[in-house]
Amino acid sequence: MISASGGVLMRRLLASGGRQRTFILTRVHASPGERTRETNRKDERRDEPQRRISEMNFFISASLAFFVLSIYTAHYIVELHKTTKDSAERDFVSKTSLYVSIEEEEDVSYSPLQQDYYRDSCPSAERIIRKALKEIYKARPSIAPSLIRLLFHDCFIETSSEKEAPPNLSLKGLDVIAFIKSELENTCPGVVSCADTLALATKEAVSLAGGPKYSLRIGRKDSLVTFKDIAQRELPSPHATLSEILARFASRGFSPQETVSLLGAHSIGITHCTFFQDRLYNFSGTGKPDPELNTGFLQELKSKCPFSASASSPSPCPDTASAPSLPASDYHTNYGLSSENQIDGTIDLSFNNEGGVMFSDQQLMASEETETWVRAYASDPLLFQRDFIKSMVKLSSYHVLTGPLGQVRTNCSKVLPLN
Ligand code: HEM
Ligand SMILES: [Ca+2]
Fold first, then answer.
1. DSSP label at residue 89
2. ipTM of model
3. Which CATH number belongs to the domain containing residue 403 in this structure?
4. E strands, 253-342, where?
5. Would 130 be classed as within a structural domain?
6. pLDDT tens figures, 46-86
7. Range of the domain at 175
8. Which residues have any ligand 1 atom within 6 Å of their CB?
């Protein structure tokens, strides 16, 4: 089993080994002192076509190094399979080896899921998902970051149907999952869960955006209940401090290192101005900008996100500081509408590839441990890729329901906000 899946992994990695890629993440969290060096390049990234290019170049590495890693990984999997007999021994081996495979970790920790769960019931499932997403991505490349974010929210709050929960209402990509699910229903009615559809579609999205390919075990079931209260409380805020962020992730079993790797996802996609406006105009109630923002960067951000009283004054909603993942106005006036209907401006999360635009991202530089990982990932794209994938697999498998514990929804669109 392990060597077989390792072979698949290897073929997939090799298949993508020839592409030229650019690594974007890494300057996102660079220190303020380093920001000025790139200020001359920033204007190039402002318009939409440029944004798409940066999305497509999501994550990466020189193809040669990528190649080498994939070979080592596959080799390691094969060797491991030959030499180990039980999981305790495998555990030992994986802890002492430099090259720990994603497959291996998944095998030990998430056994209810399987490599080929729909082999008999819906053999074309993965192909249907891949094909649909490829088409959609061509017309709408922003679907890639949207799905990655959707997966994070869905896994973090443990159910796919928090339709009444404000933080999820603006989540883009739900429509696409509903569409892909309807395609699956045409071929294999009632077989493939919404949770697997999302996990597999997100895997494709990462790859389409230029990120690494990975394999994912499947067989998730959909939840029978919603967790709207959990949804409101448990999603981290863009104003969260490092200790708050680490605590949220730790309570779900993610180490600081894994947390940093996951937040590398903020190297693609957009954020609304609302989520960092206080850093520009009224940081911590001082009436002044965040001193961490250097002058040039601050001016750029201000020109993208002009002062808006509602965003900069203390929130009328006491919960907003600890919970929301969408603009405050969504909470209070446009409840239920997509954030795309907002007047609020947006900015690329990779804007300038410099300091973190969101306070929560910048916070990763606030402790030695997390800063070390930010720098390590910034200087070693392969390490980042590998750890990001491992964390995505872990996230995709967090608290999954399997077997009789869950259901297979026939219609994911019931989680759509406007239905
Ligand atoms: C401390 C934890 C996190 C906070 C506070 C946070 C917050 C946010 C916020 C406020 C936005 C902007 C949304 C908008 O304006 O529409 C955003 C976007 C995004 N987030 Fe996070 N996030 C966190 C962790 C994560 C993780 C773990 C992932 C994935 C593994 C992720 C993936 C994304 C992506 C890809 C986008 C861009 C979405 C798009 O362009 O449509 N985030 N996040
Ligand atoms: Ca969920």
1. H
2. 0.98
3. 1.10.520.10
4. 270-272
5. yes
6. 334 444 433 333 443 222 222 222 222 332 222 223 323 33
7. 125-232+398-415
8. 142, 145-146, 148-149, 152, 172, 236-238, 240, 245, 262-263, 265-266, 268-272, 275, 325, 339, 349, 360
